Amino acid sequence: MFSVANFNMHCGMDGWGRPFDFVGSIRGLDADVIVLEEAWTTEGAANGQAEEAAAALGYQIVSHVLSEGRRIRPQPGAPDTWRARAFWLPNNTILYQEGARPLSERVRATARWQEAEPGRWGIAVLVRPEIRIEASRLLHLSVLRADRVRRAAIVVDLEVEGRPVSVAGTHMSHLHFGSHRNWAELRTQLREGARPDAVLAGDMNTWGPLVVGAFMPGWRRAVIGPTWPTWRPHSQIDHILVRGSLRSVSGRVLPHAGSDHRPVRAEIALT
Q1: Closest to 7 measured CA to CA, from 265, 205, 207
Q2: Would the CA dihedral through 93, 96, 101, 107 be positive or negative?
Q3: Phi, psi of 19 (to 5 degrees)
C-alpha cells in the first residue's frame, strides 16, 4: 500500500494573487508520492517552490520546467471580491507564459506585463526517501498551435514493497487548445514509457469520464469529486488514475489548501 497526492499549487498564490504557505499545504497532503503542477521558480533563483518544499519535507524530487512566464506580484491584501488571477493572458485564461508562439508587442508594452515577476513554471514529482527511485524519464508532447507550453509528463520508476511501479505526473492543456492530440501522444507513450502497474496524476483540464472513456482507456479513476474552483468546486479536472494490478482503496478530494485547485489523494493497493 502506498499513497499518492496531486496538487496544482498555482505558484503559491490563491485565485486572487494572495500568497499561501505552500510548504505547509504540501506537508498536509501526507503522501508517499506527491505530484505538483504550476510550481514557480523566480528568474535567477537556483531552486523553485517544488525544490524548496522537497528540501523542507525531506522528499526526493524529479522536476521539469514547462514554460517561462510572468506572474503578478503577490497581493497580500487583495480582497475576495478582486478576481484577478495569479497569471494573466489577454483572453483571461489562467496562465501567462512565453513559449512556442511569441506574445505581441502590445501585450509586452502593458504596465501589467512590465510589473509582473519573470520566471518559469513546471511540474514535479516528490517521493519519500524510504521509496527507492530506480529511474526517471520525460515524455515530451507536441506543442499545440493554440497553446504556448511545451507539455510533457514526468515518469518515475519506483520500487514499492518490492514491486516495480511507475508514477507519472503531467499538466495537460485545455480541450479548446486542441489537447486531443496530446492525449493521443501520452496514451501511446505510456504504453512503453511506464511500467504495467502505473499511476498517472495531474491537472488534466478535462473531466474524468472523458479522460478514462475516450483518452486513456485501460486506466481507472482513483478519486471522484469536484476540485475546481476551490471556493465552490463544480468540476473535477485534477485526477489520479491507476492501471494494471493497482487498486484505489480510498480516494478523496481534500479541503482547500491555498491554491485555486483542491488537492486529491488516494491510497493505492498493489493487488
Answers
A1: 265
A2: positive
A3: -70, 150
Which pairs count as long-range contacts for 266-269, CB under 8 Å and 24+ apart, including other chains? 266/3, 266/4, 266/5, 266/222, 266/223, 266/240, 266/242, 267/1, 267/2, 267/3, 268/1, 268/2, 268/3, 268/4, 268/199, 268/222, 268/242, 269/1
pTM of the complete model? 0.91
- Read off the pLDDT of residues 228-266 as tens digits, 9 standing for 90 and up: 999 999 999 999 999 999 999 999 999 999 999 999 999
**HSE of 114 in the Cβ direction (CA atoms, 13 Å)?**
5
Quickly name the fold that domain 2-270 has: Deoxyribonuclease I; Chain A (3.60.10)
Query: Tens digits of per-residue pLDDT, 26-45?
Result: 999 999 999 999 999 999 99
- In angstroms, the CA 53 to CA 206 distance is 27
Domain ranges of the chain: 2-270
Alpha-carbon distance 177 to 148, whole Å? 10
Confidence of residue 79 (pLDDT cuts 50, 70, 90): low
Are residues 207 and 168 in contact, defined by beta-carbon separation less than 8 angstroms? Answer: no
236's grid cell: 473535477
Assigned C-alpha cell, 19:
500568497
